[in-house]
Amino acid sequence: MQAEQLARESGVDLPELLARLEYDRQLLREVFFIFNKEFPLLQAELTAAVASGDFEKIRTTAHALKGMFASLSFSNASSSAQRIERMATQATLEGISEEVARLDRKAILAQTALESVCQEVLR
After folding, report:
1. Once rounded to an integer, what is the mean pLDDT over residues 18-27?
2. pLDDT, mean over the chain
């Protein structure tokens, strides 16, 4: 199954996610819809917080993203959000823009993988 390979490469733990959702196709669809709605908002918040150097906003937004990604079994994106949260806690901007760019790439890859899985699972 091509979706499963894409999920593995993107850091999405598909078996864990499906088990967490009790293999409920409707719930998977709803989770994907919510993610597609919330992620861009949090992504924009994080970018704005980094641009303004607001460490508390960076920390809380990265924490929210970390939780969102973890609940979706997006392990790579969750780890990246955790690194950003740690940087904000340490009040350092050094390397944070690069980590935000990595998080964006990892999240989009995971989003693409989940979309592919949804298309296959929801047929």
Report:
1. 87
2. 88
pTM: 0.86
For the domain 2-121, what is the CATH code? 1.20.120.160
Look-up of token digits 């998080």: 103
Ordered by start, the domain boundaries in the chain are: 2-121
- Exposure string of 70-105, with b = 16+ CB inside 10 Å and e = fewer, is eebbbbbbbbbbbbbbebbeeeeeeebeebbebbbe
